[in-house]
Amino acid sequence: MDYIIMLLPSMLKGLTVTLKLFSITLVMALPLGVIMGMARISSFNPLRWFMEFYVWLFRGTPLLLQLLFMYFGLMTVGLRLEREMAAYLAFVLNYSAYLAEIFRAGIQSIDRGQYEAADVLGLSRYQTMKNIILPQVFKRVLPPIGNEVINLVKDTALVYVLAISELSRVARTHVMRDDTFIPFLIAAIFYLMMTGMVQRFFKWVELRYDYFH
Amino acid sequence: MYILQAINIHKNFGSLGVLHGVSLQVQKGEVIAIIGPSGSGKSTLLRCLNHLERIDSGQIEIEGETIAQNNSEGKAVYSSEAKIAQARRKMGMVFQNFNLFPHKSVMQNLIMAPTLVKNMGKAEAEESARLLLAKVGLSQKADNYPFELSGGQQQRVAIARALAMNPDIMCFDEPTSALDPELTGEVLMVMKDLALEDMTMVVVTHEIGFAREVADRVIFMDEGVIMEEGQAEEVLLNPRQERTSAFLSKVLMAR
């Protein structure tokens, strides 16, 4: 017990690093995902092609590799990012690609009749997107978005490769130094608490969106 | 002057020709029923008039404004977006599948376009929406969501939603085809009331009884052309074309 209390301060510090990466990624990648999702089905060909390439690139390579590239790769061409900055950049770009695909599929799943109804009523394309299409898309994409957010909680552990002391790296340091498995258990409990909260949050949002079918 | 005029409309979907030179003139206050077998192009014609589809050649005029006309090569050229938008505002459209906005209440469905497109105040829009809901007999349903309504009720909301923009012409694309038989009556009643108020209406329908009772003129389409048109009684009771009578006997037999 004493050992656990002794561990807590450094573990909590690791947790805040994890939470910061998690929040920044989410706050940046969600709106970017919506915009990229729309760009992905734009009638402007070059934009659509670019987005297709972007999604292919960032979904098609390991996030671990992307992290290394943002820090070490860019360094070799003289662009030196802070380690945290490189991590944020890789995470935001990677998660935007995944979310863009989810939003694209969501937008395309809305019945064509909704666009036509808005069209004959005289709504502009922007008004149609904002008032008719996206609110319905948000309801539909909640389950896959929930999946991604839970993945994000766990993916944060990857930034250890940039020697950033997030939760799992702190735990590992203690495990190796103190020759005990307890820090891993504590880290697991922290992760379960975070994913548990994400799960409950999404359940709550889904209930809030339950007023229409 | 015609309130709506289409001259020699041609429309292809890829290599498939759907309309082969269809012309249509509608006078103010007239109710026109377009009938014909599926695939005859009747819905496509309506959608072309509404600018939901672009025509390949021909001419469309709405209240004297030319929306599309042929260039020297015989290909349809459309007017500016602004001009089209203005002309389309005079037309209301009711779809086979209602296409209500599922995430909006009945009231929100009705006031959305007036407030967003016409910049009408919310109170004013709600007031006229209430009158329209009373007209279609759904005053009690203002706060309900579409999924809580029957198909017939949803279609009546859709009609009220189109009327909320105060159109001069109402287009109906098989408005009762997606409904259970016992629910078609309430929708046809609302449409009949509209006709009695001298609304100009173009109705694509399979309801021969409605066409006979309400329409001033009936148009029979087949294979992308107008085969026969005339007074409702004339076309429906004494068709001149063999294909018209063959179609009518099939439709009436199914009753």
Automatic annotation (TrEMBL), chain B:
Pfam families: ABC_tran. The keyword ATP-binding applies. GO terms for cellular component: plasma membrane. Transmembrane segments: none annotated. GO terms for molecular function: ABC-type amino acid transporter activity; ATP binding; ATP hydrolysis activity. It is a peripheral membrane protein. It is found in: Cell membrane. Its main location: membrane. Residues 4-248 form the ABC transporter domain. Keywords: Amino-acid transport, ATP-binding, Cell membrane, Membrane, Nucleotide-binding, Transport. Belongs to the ABC transporter superfamily. This is ABC transporter domain-containing protein. The lineage of its organism: Bacteria, Bacillati, Bacillota, Clostridia, Eubacteriales.
